[in-house]
């Protein structure tokens, strides 16, 4: 048996350290904590959690994102003891991945290289994947970012794809909550297009605003609800800059029927906002996975999203209409050349109008999407896949 092969404890359980963040509204923290909540009920794994330092001194622990019971369980996660020798270490460190060999077992680095290239700051000083120790592998949430690590020179057998998931007790259709949320928002009679994200260029917010301005000409009760995360990304400022760069007529038309919310909310509240929407819209240019699309579909809300990217891997027509796109290259900071998808704004307008003009059909396709996600993409199901990657068949 090799030194880094899985070693069972006396109880037959494999030892795992998860390195990541807790109690901040960042996607990497949400992924780490969601996997941990599922792992706590997995009798094959003995779990420890190592907290990584936050990137920004302004970040503060925010409680109430998960349920009270879940947060109690997350807070009780134990750090690894001095003599805790892991079979695997799962490291979720965005932008600065840890490619160093672990003291014991194997290290699995989580990465979401949105532009399908490892930028200079993502290489931790390495020139190629040939310098990554054999005891280090990569886990990506879709095949789109996984290609970056192959291009870097890491062998395919050390690159694994494990998608994200949803909590089916939270992200599910609920007609009564949908009605109550729309009433509370003062949007009971509106046709709501929703989009969630940092409001940055890669999310395609400029494309969405331009398309929505045109939709407003045909659909008088249309509303665009944008949900940012000001505590992490300064989303409001990104949105303001994007709006100011648009032609005056487009800016005025989009802003007149736009609602923005940059607050930090519990996952249950986020599910309420998703259910309140009629359609979720994501004309992204570059994403590692795009979890809000999965969560929206789980809530019975059909999606309109860029075709050709990672969302193709967990959605199907007709509950996720795909915007025509063209593959392009971009020169990133540091001189690295990355890939992105440019969504066709004319086709986006067509899809947004089609959804609004036949709301009954739109609602029916949303129900089909919710069933698809509940069957294939719960956190318990995808965490089982993660365990198989970390330890092989047990």
Model description:
The protein is of the alpha/beta class and 394 residues long. It has 2 domains: 14-165 and 379-391, Rossmann fold, CATH 3.40.50; 175-376, Glycogen Phosphorylase B (Rossmann fold), CATH 3.40.50.2000. Helices cover 36% and strands 19% of the residues. It contains 13 helices and 14 strands. It has helices at 27-39, 68-75, 143-152, 175-185, 205-218, 230-233, 235-245, 248-256, 267-276, 291-298, 345-357, 359-376, 379-391; strands spanning 14-20, 45-51, 88-91, 106-110, 136-140, 159-161, 191-196, 222-227, 258-261, 279-282, 303-306, 320-323, 325-331, 337-343. The strands form 3 sheets. A 6-stranded parallel beta sheet has the order 2-1-3-4-5-6, sandwiched between helices. A 6-stranded parallel beta sheet has the order 9-8-7-10-11-12, with helices on both faces. Helix 4 (175-185) crosses helix 9 (267-276) and helix 5 (205-218) packs across helix 11. Residues 1-6 have low confidence and may be disordered.
């Amino acid at each position: 048996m090799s030194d880094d092969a899985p070693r069972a404890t006396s109880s037959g359980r494999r030892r795992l350290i998860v390195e990541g963040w807790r109690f901040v509204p960042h996607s990497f923290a949400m992924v780490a904590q969601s996997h941990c909540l599922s792992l706590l009920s997995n009798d094959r794994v003995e779990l420890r959690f190592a907290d990584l330092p936050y990137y920004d001194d302004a970040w503060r622990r925010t409680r109430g994102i998960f349920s009270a019971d879940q947060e109690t369980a997350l807070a009780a996660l134990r750090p690894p003891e001095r003599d805790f020798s892991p079979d695997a270490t799962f490291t979720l460190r965005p932008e600065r991945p840890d490619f160093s060999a672990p003291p014991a077992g194997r290290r699995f680095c989580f990465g979401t290289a949105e532009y399908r290239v490892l930028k200079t700051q993502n290489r931790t000083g390495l020139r190629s994947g040939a310098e990554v120790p054999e005891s280090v592998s990569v886990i990506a949430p879709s095949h789109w970012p996984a290609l970056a690590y192959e291009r870097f020179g890491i062998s395919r057998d050390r690159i694994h794809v494990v998608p994200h998931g949803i909590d089916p007790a939270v992200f599910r259709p609920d007609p009564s909550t949908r009605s109550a949320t729309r009433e509370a928002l003062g949007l009971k009679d509106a046709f709501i297009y929703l989009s969630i994200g940092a409001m940055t260029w890669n999310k395609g917010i400029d494309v969405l605003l331009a398309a929505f301005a045109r939709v407003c000409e045909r659909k008088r009760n249309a509303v665009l609800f944008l949900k940012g995360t000001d505590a992490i990304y300064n989303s409001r400022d990104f949105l303001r800059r994007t709006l100011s760069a648009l032609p005056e007529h487009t800016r005025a038309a989009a802003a007149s029927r736009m609602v923005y919310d940059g607050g930090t909310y519990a996952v249950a509240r986020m599910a309420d906002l998703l259910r309140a929407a009629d359609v979720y819209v994501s004309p992204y240019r570059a994403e590692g996975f795009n979890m809000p699309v999965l969560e929206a579909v789980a809530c019975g809300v059909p999606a309109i999203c860029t075709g050709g990217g990672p969302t193709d891997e967990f959605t199907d027509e007709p509950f996720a209409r795909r915007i025509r796109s063209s593959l392009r290259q971009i020169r990133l900071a540091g001189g690295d050349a990355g890939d992105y998808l440019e969504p066709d704004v004319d086709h986006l307008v067509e899809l947004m109008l089609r959804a609004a003009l036949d709301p009954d059909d739109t609602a029916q396709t949303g129900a089909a999407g919710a069933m698809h996600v509940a069957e294939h993409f719960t956190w318990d199901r995808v965490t089982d896949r993660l365990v198989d990657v970390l330890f092989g068949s047990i």
